Amino acid sequence: MQKWHQTLHKNTGLSPYVWVVFFILPFYFIFSSSSTWHIVAGFAMIVAFFVCYVLSFVSKGWPVYVWTSVLIAISITMTVVFGYVYFALFLAFFIGNLKSKAGFFTLYTIHLVTTLATINYGIVTKNSWLLSQFPFVLISLIAVILLPVNTYNRNKRDQLQGQLEDANKRISDLVKMEERHRIARDLHDTLGQKLSLIGLKSDLAGKLVRKNPEQALQELSEVRQTARTALKEVREMVTSMRGMRFEDEIFRVGQILKAAQIEFTLEGNAKLVQTSLLNENVLGMCLKEAVTNVVRHSGATACTVSIELTRAELVIRVKDNGVGPPVPEGYARGNGLRGMKERLEFVNGCLDIQSDNGTVLTMKVPNVIKQPLEEANS
To answer: Does the keyword tRNA-binding apply (predicted)?
Structure first.
């Protein structure tokens, strides 16, 4: 058995039930009638409309169109007999939530034509209730024209957005799977072959250690060199996996600052062509943390990132016009800035913070690229 919240329509939620509050209004029109028969008939139609309205939302397939047809018939009767045209608004809202394109346009056309016809009939027959509220009748007619189209388009847009998110998720999963396969291939090509070579040469050196010591030493030397080469290739592979280009990070932090309505200024060239990828990774992570601090804590309206490259070092400054921390030493003890300091120290860099009319955070790293041969022999 379904619980009450399971009967809620996925796209509308509580909306149809909130609209039920407006069912109070037709009772005024009904009880203003002098005929007891009219009162009884009107009360029965209100109850029937309420039941069919709820059933139309919780039903699926062809019963939806059956209940909608009953709703249209009740709406026509209420307009002709009591001058109450506002049931047409309930129908307009419901028709806009139909998923079938053919069903939507069919019921939309029928509902619009019948509403126009009944309003015109009320005007021709000079229905006093209808004429007394004519401005509201016109507003209702406009809503009958626009509300279903607006609701239908909104639901379609939400549906397309959901499909796009699902597609992006599938693409992301495929990219991850392909990345795993690539990593497996790279590990096989780098470690697999070289470890096999190390194993073979180690076995050979063990056999030659008594028969031919010089040849055994040569084999051990090649084992050592192969191990160093494998280590270098693994480092390069890991670095490429974690690669974060500083130029890309500059673009991302610019978007973050723009979203936070903080003016962003870049001084210098963000493309670090003579900097190692490891240093770019460290600087990119530190820059992201620095800009996050600006957005969250500074209250700044402007932020400037300056890049200064010399033969000896690379200097990145992040300056904002915010309130700044009261004590730079205390500010530096935060987890984010402590992590920045540790990352920079890992590449022999340093971090400096100055607080005067804002905050200036300076990151320095040596402008040195370790050559492949030197790295292999280290």
So the answer is: no
- CA torsion through residues 155, 161, 164, 170, sign: negative
The domain in which residue 251 lies consists of 246-369
Q: What is the CATH number of the domain that holds 339?
A: 3.30.565.10
As for how many domains the chain has, the answer is 2
Rg, Å, the chain Cα set? 37
Residue 212 lies in a domain: no
pLDDT tens sequence across 245-271: 788 888 888 888 887 888 999 998 888
β-bridge pairing 263-267 and 302-309: parallel
What pTM was computed for the model? 0.43
Q: Are 84 and 138 in contact (CB under 8 A)?
A: no
Say how far apart CA 359 and CA 298 lie, in whole Å. Answer: 8
pLDDT tens across 139-191, in order?
888 888 898 899 889 888 888 888 888 887 887 777 678 767 777 777 776 67
